[in-house]
Write a structure and sequence with these properties.
Layout (H helix, E strand, L loop, with lengths): L1 E5 L6 H12 L2 E4 H9 L4 H12 L5 H14 L5 E4 L5 H13 L6 E6 L2 H10 E3 L6 E3 L26 H24 L3 E5 L5 H16 L1
Helix pairs in contact: 2-3, 4-5, 6-7
Bound molecules: adenosine monophosphate.
């Protein structure tokens, strides 16, 4: 089964894709995670990618597609869930070609739809554990001890692209792109929209699980 989770930054793609990966035994693939890993490397590619991530801009398609292609081909015959990719229509066509190479296709595209005001609130308060990758929120999911991970006690950090001055730009740029991706999957009849505004994570998760289980039957 091949699932992708799309949505604007802060929509909860990572949170839900990780939970779904555990529940249904799907391999979790995140373009953001792959790119952040590259950005730590002291290479020319690492420096370039780092610059895009820090400014909240998309990395060039060529780089994102190459990285994702390598990972997806490695996972041949595995059921996967992808979040963060595709981010625009060009990447959508590329993903289609990559799956074509493996003679498989997408089964489901879950679109997490969240109002812009809520996205801004979520991103501004987002804090992450550098060791476990657990995502906290200063208001909606605070750690027991301020600024420290509940699981390992590490100091939580704020992603550079979650700073106030970058968030707006990040959301605006993504808006136009995602519209085209949504239209593409709608046309392919694999798109399912899940409203994620004013709902608890658990409730949204249940909605997504119902969709997947309907798809499996
Ligand atoms: P994310 O973890 O999905 O929020 O991604 C963090 C950053 O990685 C984004 O702001 C982009 O700079 C970059 N990125 C993630 N996915 C992609 C993608 N599919 N194409 C280009 N850049 C991406």
């Amino acid at each position: 089964m091949n699932i992708i989770v799309i949505g604007l930054p802060g929509a909860g793609k990572k949170t839900h894709a990780k939970k779904l990966s555990k529940k249904y035994g799907l391999v979790y693939l995140s373009s953001g995670k792959l790119l952040r890993k590259i950005a730590k490397h002291d290479t020319s590619l690492g420096t370039v990618v780092n610059r895009y991530i820090r400014s909240g801009q998309l990395a060039p398609d060529e780089i994102a597609v190459r990285l994702m292609r390598e990972e997806i081909l490695k996972l041949k015959d595995k059921d996967i869930i992808i979040e963060g990719f595709p981010r625009n229509i060009n990447q959508t066509h590329s993903l289609e070609r990559i799956w074509g190479e493996l003679e498989v296709d997408i089964d489901l595209c879950i679109y997490l739809k969240v109002k812009e005001q809520e996205l801004i609130k979520r991103l501004k308060g987002r804090r992450i554990c550098p060791r476990d990758g657990i995502i906290y929120h200063v208001e909606f999911r605070p750690p027991q001890k301020k600024g420290l991970c509940d699981k390992c006690g590490a100091s939580l950090y704020q992603r550079k692209d979650d700073k106030k001055e970058v968030i707006k730009e990040k959301i605006n740029k993504n808006k136009k792109n995602i519209k085209e991706v949504i239209a593409y999957y709608q046309n392919k009849e694999v798109l399912k929209t899940v409203i994620g505004t004013d709902e608890k994570i658990k409730k949204i998760q249940e909605k997504i699980e119902n969709l997947i289980e309907n798809e499996m039957n």
